[in-house]
Amino acid sequence: MKKPGGRPPKWTKRQLVDGMRWRTRAGVPWRDVPERYGAWQTVYGPFRRWQRDGTWKRILADLQADADAKGLIDWDVSVDSSLARAHQHAAAARKRGGPQKEPPGGVETEPTITGSDARTAG
């Protein structure tokens, strides 16, 4: 069997995964990952690759399956609609083809031109 060539890795996979976990838990940009986990580009590379090839989805599915088999997951979900907010424009949305509301206070939208104003406006 042929040995792989190239330079040996400077950071262990454990360090890289710990860096990914630290970054996710802290919620900071990739560039703020501490150097003890490796250079941020080195930590980001496998994270993105595993994201693209579905590794993270498989890990999550396996962990959920194991926890469910042990009875550690309660799959009941409760959604409180008082916390779900509509967009600010959704409350007063105009229906298509419906009449437009009058301006508040019944103020006319265009001024009425009378008498001598009519000659200068024309």
Secondary structure blueprint with pairings:
Blueprint: H1 13-26, H2 40-53, H3 55-69, H4 116-121
Helix pairs in contact: 1-2
Pfam family, one: DUF4096
Domain Insertion element IS402-like: 4-59
Region (Disordered): 85-122
In short:
This protein is an all-alpha fold. It has a domain at 13-69. Helices cover 40% and strands 0% of the residues.
Report the uncertain regions: none
Q: Which of globular, elongated, flat, extended, rod-shaped describes the shape?
A: elongated
Continuous helix count: 4
* Secondary-structure element string: HHHH
User: Strand portion, in percent?
Assistant: under 5%
Tell me the number of strands. Answer: 0
Tell me the major beta sheet: none
Integer-rounded radius of gyration: 31 Å
Helix share bin: 40-55%
Q: Briefly note the structural class of the backbone.
A: mainly alpha
Notes on the protein architecture:
40% of the residues lie in helices and 0% in strands. It is mainly α. It has a domain at 13-69. Helix 1 packs across helix 2. It is elongated, with a radius of gyration of 31 Å. 7% of the residues are buried. The model has no long low-confidence stretch (mean pLDDT 81).
